[in-house]
């Protein structure tokens, strides 16, 4: 059942969405770090 659920999520491009979210969070963290002199 878990595999079927994961397969369904991957068909909906969940992996791509998660990767994009992490990349954007990383970029934002770097921007904030520069603002705070880090």
Key terms:
84% helix; mainly alpha; 0% strand
Provide a descriptive summary of the structure in words.
This protein is rod-shaped. The protein has one domain (2-37). 84% of the residues lie in helices and 0% in strands. The termini are far apart. The chain has 38 residues and is mainly α.
Secondary structure topology:
Layout: H1 2-11, H2 14-35
Protein name: Pyrroline-5-carboxylate reductase
Domain Pyrroline-5-carboxylate reductase dimerisation: 1-32
- Report strand %: under 5%
* Helix-strand string: HH
Uncertain regions spanning at least 5 consecutive residues: none
Radius of gyration: 15 Å
Instruction: Give the CA-based shape.
Output: rod-shaped
Question: Strand pairing plus helix content: what structural class?
Answer: mainly alpha
Instruction: Estimate the helix proportion, in percent.
Output: over 70%
Give the total of beta strands. 0
Largest sheet report: none
The tally of helices reads 2
Q: Give the number of domains.
A: 1
* Mean pLDDT over the residues: 88
Query: How far apart, in Å, are the first and last alpha carbons?
Result: 46 Å
């Amino acid at each position: 059942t878990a595999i079927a659920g994961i397969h369904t999520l991957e068909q909906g491009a969940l992996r791509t969405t998660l990767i994009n979210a992490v990349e954007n969070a990383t970029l934002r963290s770097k921007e904030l770090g520069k603002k705070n002199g880090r």
